[in-house]
Specification:
The chain contains six helices and no strands. The chain has helices at residues 3-7, 20-42, 66-94, 99-119, 124-127, 133-153. The two termini are 13 Å apart.
Amino acid sequence: MTFLEKLFPANANNAYQGNTMALYFLVLFTILMTARSLIHFTFEDGGSNVIGNLVILEKTETGLDPNKLSYAFAKLGGLSQLIICVINIVVLFRYRNLIPLMYLLWIVEWGTRLFIGAFWDLIPQEYHLSPAPAVVVAPYLFIVLIVFFTLSLRQTHQSN
């Protein structure tokens, strides 16, 4: 089976043939990401101030509150994360041979976070009280995801 066939199998089914540790890690990771998504989606500030350590912005001279816009985007981000988590849950229960693809999507998301974080010109002292937890763990999580992605591609079960 080629690399592309492992990522995009002809038929989506529950016949996962990768490493079992990769399966269990994806279960735990999906639970963690679902909790994170629900926080961003349900918290009043979208988790921006309470968890993300963003500075609360002052109202403009016209009385507009820029925090409301920031919170709305945080909530929308939480919703999109939650949708990805629901897809992960469906894959874990019904279409396990798509687990390598789910790992690839997570790698793209966390890799993009690293890329944007490295090139985005936000001075931490101006916008953050301290680094957000996701910023701190992103480099390590990116590496861990690559390791488990690799494990998910390794065939441990022979197909008949």
